[in-house]
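Give me structure tokens for this 934-residue protein.
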Amino acid sequence: MASLEAIPEELSRLMKYFPETPAEERPAFHSAAKDFLDRAAPKIVRQFSPMARVKWHLAASGRGEELAGLLHYERENPGAFAVKGLRRARIELPGIESSSLPSSVRNFNRSELPVRGKLLDLVWGDGKLVVKGYAYIPNVPSATGKRSLRVAVLRRQGSRSALPLRLRTVEEPRATTEAKGALHNYDWSGFEIGIDPGRLRVRGQWQSGTWRLGVGIPRPGGMSVGSITKNNAGAAGHSYTRVLDDGVRLVAGFDRNRLKLTVDVVPAEIESQESDGDTLTVTLRSRVTAPAGKFPTALRIDHEPSGFATDLPLQQTGTGDDGWLRHTAKLPLADLPTDGVTPGKPRKYRALIVFADGTTRRATNGEKLRTDVHPLPDGRELAVLTDGAGNFTPQLRTVQPVVDSVRWSADGELELAGSYAGPAEQMKMVLRHTGRNEDRPLPVEFADGRFTARLRPDTMETYEGTVPLRAGRWMPRLRLRSEWDHTRDLPVTIRPDLVSVLPLSHRPDLVSVLPLSHRGEHRTYTVERLDFDRIFVESGPVIGPELRGAYRQRLMRDVYTPEQRKLPLREAVLYNSFGGKQFSDSPRAVYEELKRRGTDVEHIAMVHDQQVVLPPGVRGVEWGSKEWYEALARSRYVVTNGGIREWFVRREGQVVVQTWHGTPLKRIGADLLGTPKANLAYIASLPQRSRQYSLFITPNAFTTPIMTNSFRLQCEVLEAGYPRNDVFHAPDRVKRAAAVREKLGIPAGKKVVLYAPTWRDDQRYGGRRFKLDNQIDVEAARRELGEDHVLLYRKHHKVLDSIPGAGQGFVYDVTYYPDIADLYLIADVLITDYSSVLFDFAHSGRPMLFFTYDLEHYRDTLRGFYFDFTSRAPGPLIKTSEDLVAAIRNIDEVSEEYKEKYAQFRVDFCEPSDGRAAARVVDRMLAIKDEQQG
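Here you go.
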């Protein structure tokens, strides 16, 4: 809540890490908390969330042990509690007697038990508008049980009129999945409500008015009433219009994202539009019986951002067979300004009907109006569109593709077809991921003013084979082949009059309603729409609904895993490389060593979203799946280069090898103590986390004491060198490098520059989703280096966004190449910054350049270093893209200048380096098993 901002920042931090506070320092915090509450206005304290009220009351009352227990509970179950009571609803928390809390602390007010409702679908059936969704009260699952008594009602705005509705309870697992909390099940909070529009008549007549849908849910202490909020795509994410009678529309729309129904008795509407190439002629119809003041006099076309506005006089042309008056307005197309209309930046106009009394209303489309596109000079067009509310919407834009046919084949091929009158020979089509901002090519053919794009999402090509299309939403876009980024992309839209009824082929009898879905081998792919007419393809999750969400994952952890741990261990090795995003790094090297020896074990690899191609004989288990929990509980060996889960406990007889993933330059773990970056809760958990491991691998003498302290290691530490760096000594490394160059399509004779930067803590979209902070002028680099170099650009696996210039012949996006070790073998020069790749690549002895454009900020503000990087770096620290390009061009001179520093760097950080690190790790791993059984 906003009132929490009133708490001083340092006091808030002390609360957050109270469980880690030494006993002798706790009284001072209790005193400070009491002083704060004594001084705070009661109004502010009342606005604290229920959990916050309890925490600060315990703190001010000196109840430290209870507060520490509550904070531990909150970390595991954020925002979760129980609600009890008959006449007054109160909070119930484990370890705290509610009667020991003042009523002002423990009791809820009405706003603290809101209804959380979400719209899932809007459909028309049997003469009714059917509203489907879910509604529950967070932390009160009993209120939405299978036999709960919920009510639904429509209330007319500006009136006391209310219409009770029949609400049918249905099972809806998405409610629990999307709730995020792990404690409560809301599966039976689903509902279906059928609304007969005839009931919206007033005294038997249609009258304009707005009705709001509310759902009431009984709960302890009374009833909570709330609205149903819109979804973000498909029918549940857009307004919906239905003609009820001649000139009467029902519009299901949204006000501040909350569902409302509007009966619109239109005084005038657009009936048709046509163009002769120079003029757009719009025909309106208006009611003969309308009052004189509501006689339409003009059609106003305006665009507020640019200041454009024009009133087109209406000419009455007679009366139609339906008894409505007809009027026409003419818009000279040359009058529409084209400044600022560029690819990807259309200009959407608003259309208003002006009446004799000076009032206006949005021009809406009559039932017979058909949208259309009218060609204009210079590669532009005027599209006459509509939206979910049925508004007449002219749009001036660059010629863009419009889908009029969508079809899934029986074997899983998606075909999108439509019209495109632009320069087809200059265009390509891509799919762009809305969450990751990354592109995939979408094969497309152009012919006779039409396009056909085909996609097999179950078999997307990668360097090693095929994988399914990555989970999430993918938007088709049309892009000039010469463009280096997405900023001038053309959207791919659905023909507006086909949004609800979209042909599956050009035969008019084959129709379907979006969404269109296809079940692949392990997931469902769906064609849907966003922003009314933007088409997208959604790749669904691999894990089935029975395992999705925090609640069901908790059951797997707390119920299924203990059952599996009672079963015997299997002679299997479970590998985790970067959370299942790759099968690479030191875990891959350990696998190869075990294969070389012929060790009789099953090989199992964790995979994330099925985005990894595994070697023959390696079984993949999807992270969070039933098979994943089983493998984690029953595999004799676990080899990981990162964390698994904080709840994981190594069982007796299990050998867990932590290889980690880099020599540290940046401060990590407990070494951040005393800095704002220190996470005291995480640091306090490090001893328990280290007990997960039987063996921790370090790459050199420099790293061993750092890891021992920063991770509070209480397990055996083996300074074996990193198995992943054995590649620099592999007998087949030259042959392997040639194969990699061929796989990437690098022209013979061109030098390879590999750029592998780390992420920036302060450049993020949110959470652990980091932005690409590209500071290389790739166009200038191509001009200077493109003749005899290629630039391989590898983002850190936490970084999103597409790479500018990738696919244009100079820049190669190798982010998803399965193992960076292969890229080391072909790189003539490495560019990095503060990434640990510098310690690995140093084994090659080849030149390194450090593009440290933000050195002072990164070192002094963000992370801090373990040593003076400026004096020990084995290559120049470069600030500008221009200087970076110059250093590449003069790499021989740079290498000579840094020869001595490079040699010392290898002594300090690259020993041991003999190609036997994997062998040493496997020797010790197998020996630990023998010792445990001996």
